[in-house]
Structure prediction request, 464 residues.
Amino acid sequence: MSRKTFQRLSLDVRRRSLIEATLTCIARDGLHGASVRRITEEAGVTVGLVRHYFGSKDDMIRNAYAYLVGQLTAQASESARATEGTPEAKLASFLRANLTKPNMDEQTVSLWATFIGRVRHDPDFAEIHRDGYREFLNVLETLIEPVLIDHGCPHSVAICRNHAIALNGLIDGLWMEGALNSGLYAQDILPDLITGAAERLLELPAGALSAPDIALQSARHQTHSEQQSKPS
Amino acid sequence: MSRKTFQRLSLDVRRRSLIEATLTCIARDGLHGASVRRITEEAGVTVGLVRHYFGSKDDMIRNAYAYLVGQLTAQASESARATEGTPEAKLASFLRANLTKPNMDEQTVSLWATFIGRVRHDPDFAEIHRDGYREFLNVLETLIEPVLIDHGCPHSVAICRNHAIALNGLIDGLWMEGALNSGLYAQDILPDLITGAAERLLELPAGALSAPDIALQSARHQTHSEQQSKPS
DNA sequence: ATCAAAATTATTCAATTGTATAACAATGAG
DNA sequence: CTCATTGTTATACAATTGAATAATTTTGAT
Prediction:
């Protein structure tokens, strides 16, 4: 019986393929069902490669966690960056993105919770979590400040930070409970719900985030040089 | 070599002792480190009892999850019920209780996240989660409604429910990120932060929840028959 | 075309897992 | 005091686990 034929791939490609297989398996089988054998089978390689590329299974899982957190934050940030228009529109887009596909996904939340459960037991997990959380807070602060300025609200660093902490809590909680979808309400109410809630949290006039057209009118006397581009 | 001496305990006591040992082990060693042997050693019995009382390890863990959720909800509800005074004081007490010890505890959050990670893979876990979530929402609605009425705010069933969903998200998110304590801010800012945030979410006058004395004055013209009892 | 380097496979190993079964002893009824 | 009940211990077992080692094949440099 002949050996399996194989390709030698670059370090980056192999590592990524193993990491993605790890996430796939944990999402599908849970942490306890994601054995080295199943993961490597999913990646189309044999077990030895784990040791070769990561040293140990735990180290591979750590890398998978960091990869997931990075993806989540990057997706959310990108969604805000890609939105043109007023700061209100950017913030609203960011909030809504967190509560719609693909960001709000049961599989992703499940993965995330599984990893969070290890933060306490593994310093590396704790560091990955802290970095991801800090990054998320920073993005939020950056989005919040211009909105506060636009509406003449207080916008000191401390105030922006506290708003970011609260808003992040709101996002996290709704994201998690919404994605797990216990069936107590329809998931699609959440984007509107969070923009409305954010308006009140930041003490913006009603509709500032949830009704962009109205908000645009009321904001026009401040930033009349900007014009909203209609999506095709 | 003689056998281990033992006591025959009642069904309830044994089951609870095994359940608590299960939670202790998962909190200490993580889900993967909580083997039947370690759990039974923690409980001071031998491995055979798991089969005898629960049938399987998975079934024992399911029971441990239900036990944890029940405790969490009961503690939170009790903290609100025990507070005498205005509806505002009750709601504020409930909110603050969720973000202070013993409710906000890294070990508990870690346990909770670990279990949440299994909701997707086990229908029994999903049911336990849904029941706990529904119960929490109901408590919140019950606390929110009289506050809205006191301040002359709209308080339809739908409005109360939406407020409860948002407030629950806020609680969950802050509770989780706060307990994991990434060190980005001091944990003890959270009780004040959430009462302030809740005021704005519910569109109450500033201080209605965060500064009970001032709130009492402003509410006195509505509910002047009530009097606050000073804590000893 | 050759050959050394190293990426990958194949296999082995000890340890641990959850569960099943049999032996035992604590307990309460009579 | 006796004895059956059954809660509990002790042991066995097959399966699976993560990791280590050895064998082999691909690849790129020369």
About this structure: Residues 3-4, 6-9, 14, 45-49, 52 of chain A lie near DNA strand C (CB under 10 Å from a C1'). The CA atoms of residues 96 and 191 of chain A lie 5 Å apart.
